[in-house]
């Protein structure tokens, strides 16, 4: 009876623990996606395995507490619930440790400013690089000039910009309310806003739009960035938006092999734009693969260099 009571209590506690693992993993899924390689597959594996083991232990708990006689099937369930639980948990822990994203902290981390015309521009173009920089200890701020009201709901889009920045781990983001698609009418205000952000952040590196871009807002942000940073000792890198022309020719690349899924997940935060073709994960992955081929790595983000200054 004592052994039976211990077994009943053990299966009950195990079932509760596995249910707890499922709930905790689901609630912390954003953090999981941000810090783990192959996060989608591992997330589903943890949830699925925990569900199976919770059901097995719960079934065994109910079976034993009801006092039914043992059968070959019930003994097999008991064996699975007890021993396979330990084995599978151990394997999962080892797999999680091996897929944890670890980046060496930079000795002299830089201050970074990423500038975008619209709420999703930064994640689409430079999300992988910013995530990698953040993990290396860089201080990162972002400036978004419009709320993207011409392409969707302004309130949703500015909230999604903040959500994307939070997911990537950015220290600060400011979303302004300049006129979407008509930034040229706010050119002075745009330049002043960028200049104020540069003064506030004192960045070593600025990411901004390229001049080789057919979107008028992107071109204006490029020009305004150069004006605002004219007297600064700052590296200026231009990123690749979906609207760049064939004249966009990157010469500086960042290996983002560990950050492909993180970039895709950051872009998914912009649910208001999810139907846009350029938001599709397969297109994002293929572009990273193409730039990676140019850089002789698996995946990379490419940048045009306006000015490169060493921070050593």
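^ Assign residues to that structure.
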């Amino acid at each position: 009876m004592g052994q039976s009571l211990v077994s009943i209590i053990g299966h009950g506690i195990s079932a509760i623990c596995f249910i707890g693992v499922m709930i905790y993993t689901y609630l912390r899924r954003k953090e999981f996606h941000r810090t783990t390689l192959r996060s989608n597959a591992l997330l589903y594996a943890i949830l699925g395995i925990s569900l199976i083991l919770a059901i097995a232990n719960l079934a065994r708990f109910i079976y034993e507490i009801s006092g039914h006689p043992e059968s070959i099937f019930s003994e097999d369930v008991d064996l699975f619930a007890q021993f396979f639980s330990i084995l599978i948990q151990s394997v999962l822990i080892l797999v999680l440790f091996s897929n944890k994203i670890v980046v060496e902290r930079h000795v002299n981390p830089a201050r970074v400013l990423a500038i975008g015309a619209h709420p999703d521009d930064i994640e689409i173009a430079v999300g992988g690089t910013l995530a990698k920089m953040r993990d290396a200890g860089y201080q990162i701020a972002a400036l978004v000039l419009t709320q993207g009201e011409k392409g969707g709901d302004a309130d949703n889009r500015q909230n999604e910009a903040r959500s994307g920045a939070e997911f990537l781990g950015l220290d600060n983001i400011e979303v302004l309310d300049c006129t979407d698609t008509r930034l040229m009418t706010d050119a002075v205000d745009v330049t002043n806003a960028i200049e104020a952000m540069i003064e506030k952040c004192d960045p070593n590196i600025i990411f901004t739009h390229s001049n080789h871009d057919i979107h008028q807002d992107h071109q204006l942000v490029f020009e305004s960035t150069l004006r605002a940073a004219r007297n600064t000792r700052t590296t200026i890198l231009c990123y690749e938006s979906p609207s760049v022309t064939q004249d966009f020719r990157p010469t500086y690349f960042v290996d983002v092999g560990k950050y492909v899924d993180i970039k895709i997940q950051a872009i998914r935060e912009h649910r208001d734009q999810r139907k846009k073709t350029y938001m599709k994960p397969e297109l994002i992955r293929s572009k990273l693969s193409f730039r990676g081929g140019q850089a002789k790595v698996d995946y990379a983000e490419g940048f045009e260099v306006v000015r490169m200054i060493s921070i050593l």
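The chain has two domains: 2-98, 111-307.
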